[in-house]
TrEMBL record:
Protein name: Vanillate O-demethylase ferredoxin subunit
Record's keyword annotation contains Magnesium: no
PROSITE patterns from the UniProt entry: 2FE2S_FER_2, FAD_FR
Family annotation (InterPro entries): 2Fe-2S_ferredoxin-like_sf, 2Fe-2S_ferredoxin-type, Beta-grasp_dom_sf, FAD-bd_FR_type, FNR_nucleotide-bd, MRET, OxRdtase_FAD/NAD-bd, Riboflavin_synthase-like_b-brl
2Fe-2S ferredoxin-type domain mapped to chain residues: 254-337
GO biological process: methylation
Alphabetized CDD domains for the sequence: fer2 (cd00207), PDR_like (cd06185)
One Pfam family recorded for the sequence: NAD_binding_1
Alphabetized UniProt keyword annotations: 2Fe-2S, Flavoprotein, Iron, Iron-sulfur, Metal-binding, Methyltransferase, Oxidoreductase, Transferase
UniProt key word Iron-sulfur: yes
Coiled coil stretches, renumbered: none
Cross-referenced SUPFAM superfamilies: 2Fe-2S ferredoxin-like, Ferredoxin reductase-like, C-terminal NADP-linked domain, Riboflavin synthase domain-like
Amino acid sequence: MDTVLERMEAVQDIEAGTLDVRVKQIRYEGNGINSYELTSPSGKMLPPFDAGSHIDVHLKNGVIRQYSLCNAPAERHRYVIAVLKDAGGRGGSRAVHESLHAGDIVTISIPRNHFALAAGARKVILIAGGIGVTPLKAMAHELEMRHVDFEMHYCARSPEAAAFGPELEAMRRAGKVHYHFDDGDDANRLDLKRLLLEPAPDTHVYYCGPGGFMAACADAASHWPAGTVHFEHFKAPEKPRREAGETAERAAGCQVTIASTGQVLHVGPDQNLADALNEAGVEVPTSCCAGLCATCKVRYRDGEVEHNDFILNDDERDEFLTVCVSRPAGPTLTLDL
Ligand code: FES
């Protein structure tokens, strides 16, 4: 149990929304996957987090990337992230693998959570695709601690490509974790349709993985009751090309009104709304700039929105938009800023 003094010190650390941590240990977890254990340089307890939380990691090249915390949320002495080196990515995972070393001090944000476990579930099904296992592993730890019935399905190409083998072994032996290795043999793939065939009472589904996997999970879970299926993208899926008609509609751009001041901005057809706001002196914090983290979530009052994020649910989209990727769908929009 942390002391009051330790808790106060942690709060002082997080006043700016960021804290410095030391890379205590880097561990090979699987093909192309390293885990990074982050601890307080002075040995303090770290701010608490819930399963599904992520942190921003400020990399040496000025890039900020979000990574899910994958250790047990009950642990207060460390955060653990795991990063798959993605040669085709935007460069963040490469920078982590190549520039972070044991002993380094790195700036991170306090944990934020847009993928929390819903309260009251009697059974939970966790479905992980590749490195999407990270938030689900934290959930497995939390569910185990809370004595909630769960099963985790972990899809990976091969045993060598699956992370956290030793840590998940006890859960595997207990029949809680099931591996599905599909390299070369379709018969080994997880049959998502079968797994999710019958929605069960008080059962919630959580999934995270690459684009094709996410689409397959969404399809297999499409008949489950509203509010029982939860997901998080760790990478923005490919966007379909804009149709010619849609491009013409955008040609004139749109007028965005700032509710508190009455200021009206013109947002050009190809202009990013977050950029337009910042250029006009209306500051909105951003982080992932890819519609994945909700840092730039802003309430809107009227007008139609073209939602291009991968984080807000339908209810949230009735009220909010993420200005880094979303934009007005009509000629006018009022923002609650
Ligand atoms: S900055 Fe992450 S969703 Fe906009």
